[in-house]
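Worked problem 6 (solution included).
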Amino acid sequence: MKLFDRIANYPRKLTKHETKLADYILSGYPQHLLESATAIANKVDVSASTVVRFFAKLDYASLGEVQDEARLDLASKLTSPSQRAKQASKSKHSLTDVLERTLEMDRENLGATLEAIDQCAFDALIDILTRPETRRIYLVAAKNSSAVAHYLYTHLNMCLPNVHALPTGTALADQLLWTSPEDVLLAITIRRYSSAVVQTAQHFRKKKSSIVCITDSPLAPVANLSDHRLLIHTSSTSPFDSYTAAFSLCNAIVAAVALKRQKEVKQSLKHGDELWEEFGVFTTSHS
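Solution. The predicted structure is:
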C-alpha cells in the first residue's frame, strides 16, 4: 500500500500537526516528501521527531523508505513514453520474462486498486447513475483512455438510457450545449492528463452537475473538480501504462448498475437482440 492509500486508510483521526504535515506533503508530492525531516518540520512548524513518528504510524520503517517509494513513483509518473522506451530497450529479459513480469504486475495493479478504491465513492457513483433524477450521463476521455470510455459506454448504453460518449475534438463544445445540473460526467484520465478532459470537467462544475473521475492519482487535475474519485493503479513493464485495472473497474460499474436495474436490463437486452437480428449485426452460426 502506497502513501496516499495509507493516509486515506489510517484508522485513527490525525492530530492537528499530523494533518498539517499530510496537507503539506500531498500539496507538493513528491518534491515536498524528498526533503529532509528537519526541512519538512520547519516548513510545517512541527518538530522533526513528529515527522519521523508520522511515517512510523503509517507503517514505514523510516523516512528513507517512503522517500524511496516516492522516487520510484516520480520516475514512473514524470517520464514520457519515449523516455521509458529508452529504459526498456536496455532490458535483457527474455520474452518469457516479459510475459510473466507483465501479468504479475497487472495482478499487483488489481490488488492495489482493490485496496485503494473508495467503496463510498463507488457506491455514490452507482447511485448517481441509476437515480431517477439523473437526466443524461456523459463519458469523457482522451488519448489511450478513450478505449476505456468506449468500453464503458458500450455496456452502460445497454443498461441505462441517455448515455453519451463525448468526443474530444472540435465537436466537443457542441455536445455540451444542453448540459444541466441534472446531468452526470464520468471522466476517465490517466497521466499524461488531457487538457480537454479537464476543460470538460470545469464546464460541468460551472453547471453544478455531478462529476466522478477514474484516475491514477489524487493529484490529477480533474480530481479536485470531482465530487467522487476512483483511483486505479497503472504500473507497467512497457513504455505505456497498464489499463487492466481501469477495465476491471468498468466491469464492476456495469455489474453494479445491471444489478440495480435487473428488470430494465432484461428488457433492453431483449430489444437489443431484436435489433441486432434485424440489422444482421452478427454472423449466423452453423452447428
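Discussion: The two ends are 50 Å apart (CA to CA).
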